[in-house]
Every structure is written in C-alpha cells, then in structure tokens.
Design a protein that fits this description.
mainly alpha
C-alpha cells in the first residue's frame, strides 16, 4: 500500500462542482447533441448499467494499469456516478449528508451497523 496522500481536495471539489453543473446544464438538452442528455433519456436502469461498466474499468485500471489510466477511468466513473444520481433523482446534498454522518466513524463500525 502506498504512503502517498490523495492530494489536493480543493481541486477535486472544484472539478466535481463544475461536473455537476455541466450535467445539470445538459440534462434537458437534445439527446442527439449531448451524451449526458442521451444517457438520462434512457433512464436510471441504463445509467446504472453504464455506471457498473465504468466501475469495472476503474477497478481493472487500479489492478493493472498505470496512474494516468487509473485517473482517467476514475474520472469516467465519477461522471457516470453523477449522471446515475441525476437519473435517480438523488442530489449531491443527500450524498454529502450520508458522508458527513459517517465522518469519524470507523469503516468497520459503520459496516457492522448496517442491517443485513
């Protein structure tokens, strides 16, 4: 395991904010002119399938590719996650609330607290 930190969270937060705004702007666009609009027009199930594909590609990049390819696949995954959230009607504020509720809680404790 690497001892390298994840880096500049401000840069990522700014990029994710721009990504969310772009998705919102393109959501009502013409599906023949916008990939985002095309994905959203196909509905949450299609968006979920694309998210799964991108998740697998990101995992494979982590396992077998270099840092640049991994970063690229991670960017694709984040884009498709945001589109899927939009398709499902889940806002980023709701995700932020869930993350905030988990702050300071061990991942092992949090997982054990979930009803199975």
């Amino acid at each position: 395991m690497s001892d390298t930190s994840l880096g500049d969270t401000d840069a990522l937060a700014a990029a994710l904010g721009r990504l969310a705004a772009t998705i919102d702007d393109r959501a009502s666009g013409d599906p023949s002119q916008s990939y985002t609009a095309k994905l959203l027009a196909r509905g949450p199930v299609h968006c979920a399938k694309k998210l799964g594909e991108e998740g697998v590609e990101a995992a494979l990049a982590v396992a077998a590719e270099g840092a640049d390819e991994t970063a690229s696949e991670a960017a694709d995954l984040l884009y498709h996650l945001f589109v899927a959230l939009r398709a499902k009607g889940v806002g980023l504020d709701a995700v932020a609330e869930k993350l905030a509720a988990r702050e300071g809680v061990s991942g092992l404790v949090e997982k054990a607290s979930r009803a199975e």
